[in-house]
């Protein structure tokens, strides 16, 4: 296995800059998600690492070896695509064996390694079937077995679960994580699914317009986003804009919002702050029930969306629509048009410098 280092990589297609001076260190044995909107550069970066395309500038290393000009077949990369890319006229076992056959391995070695890979993905008894006889999740497991049977140094996954329905996707998330942990391979996957990135990865890199916006552990990015884009792209966030006060911001109507102690911005500077919807408490009275809830705003419920175990309330306040997510516990529901009070602690407020 090996780590991957991407240093100052740029790639343009005509006037479009798909990657703009991107640097990321993918630790050996880690599970890394590349997240971003369409056109952000995440798939382009994956293709650079795989060797399907080459950077205009910058350096890519695998296991300390510079590979930015090494062709794909010499990089020892395993790759799984969204559409599986299985050979329909071959059996499951022959699909998995394909890479080893191309290498010229002897039949005994191939048979052993194919069975080992199929056992790992829990398809050990289905080697004789054809792809059309399998479910979507089983076909994805075959594609994964084919990618890992050659013992690659790095595993790349391009929207690996995008073709599966929600229930099957959740099951495959668990399976992929189990398999990755079991073999200990450095894994980098591209996804547009925020929940998938949060659930599966050790670290997340968020890209936008070819640039790396933020990277780090999922909890860190979710709890301490560095920009409005990161806050709103990875999960929901209520964004407030105003002037920095030193330990929070003051909104245009004069309302002060306090932030976590230790967060500071120069007083008077334009600033934003983000508050996650599930961190806000909503009630019909203005009694402060917890001294820790230093932030309090009044508003009016405009809409409620029921989602089974929780509900999302949309609250209008000073021309802004705020989101509040609450668990459905059987307590009285708030009605549309009802006046409410929103409360949250300074620790739930993330300060973000303007720009």
Automatic annotation (TrEMBL):
Enzyme class: translocase
Keywords per UniProt: ATP-binding, Cell membrane, Membrane, Nucleotide-binding, Translocase, Transport
Ranges in a coiled coil: none
Enzyme Commission number(s) from the entry: 7.6.2.11
Keyword hit for Cell membrane: yes
Entry's Gene Ontology BP terms: putrescine transport
Assembly behavior: The complex is composed of two ATP-binding proteins (PotA), two transmembrane proteins (PotB and PotC) and a solute-binding protein (PotD).
Name under which the protein is recorded: Spermidine/putrescine import ATP-binding protein PotA
Source organism per UniProt: Mesorhizobium erdmanii
């Amino acid at each position: 296995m090996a780590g991957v280092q991407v240093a100052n990589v740029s790639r343009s297609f005509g006037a479009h800059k798909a990657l703009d001076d991107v640097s990321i260190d993918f630790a050996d044995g880690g599970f890394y998600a590349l997240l971003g909107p369409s056109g952000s550069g995440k798939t382009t970066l994956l293709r650079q690492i795989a060797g399907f395309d080459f950077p205009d500038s910058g350096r890519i290393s695998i296991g300390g070896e510079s590979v930015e000009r090494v062709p794909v077949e010499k990089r020892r990369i395993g790759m799984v695509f969204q559409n599986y890319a299985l050979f329909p006229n071959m059996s499951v076992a022959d699909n998995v064996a394909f890479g080893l056959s191309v290498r010229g391995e002897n039949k005994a070695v191939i048979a052993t390694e194919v069975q080992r890979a199929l056992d790992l993905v829990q398809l050990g008894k289905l080697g004789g079937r054809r792809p059309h006889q399998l479910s979507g999740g089983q076909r994805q497991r075959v594609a994964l077995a084919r990618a890992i049977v050659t013992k690659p140094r790095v595993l790349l996954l391009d929207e690996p679960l995008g073709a599966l329905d929600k229930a099957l996707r959740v099951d495959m998330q668990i399976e992929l994580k189990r398999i990755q942990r079991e073999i200990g391979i450095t894994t980098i996957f591209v996804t547009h699914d925020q929940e998938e990135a949060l659930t599966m990865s050790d670290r997340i890199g968020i890209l936008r317009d070819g640039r790396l916006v933020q990277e780090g552990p999922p909890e860190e990015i979710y709890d301490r986003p560095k920009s409005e884009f990161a806050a709103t792209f990875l999960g929901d966030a209520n964004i407030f804009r105003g002037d920095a006060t030193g330990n929070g911001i003051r909104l245009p109507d004069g309302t002060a919002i306090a932030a976590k102690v230790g967060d500071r911005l120069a007083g008077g500077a334009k600033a934003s702050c983000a508050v996650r919807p599930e961190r806000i408490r909503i009630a019909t009275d203005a009694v402060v029930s917890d001294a820790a809830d230093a932030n309090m705003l009044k508003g009016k419920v405009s809409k409620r969306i029921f989602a089974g175990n929780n509900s999302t309330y949309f609250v209008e306040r000073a021309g802004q629509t705020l989101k509040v997510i609450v668990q459905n516990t059987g307590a009285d529901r708030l009605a549309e048009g009802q006046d409410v009070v929103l409360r949250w602690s300074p620790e739930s407020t993330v300060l973000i410098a303007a720009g």
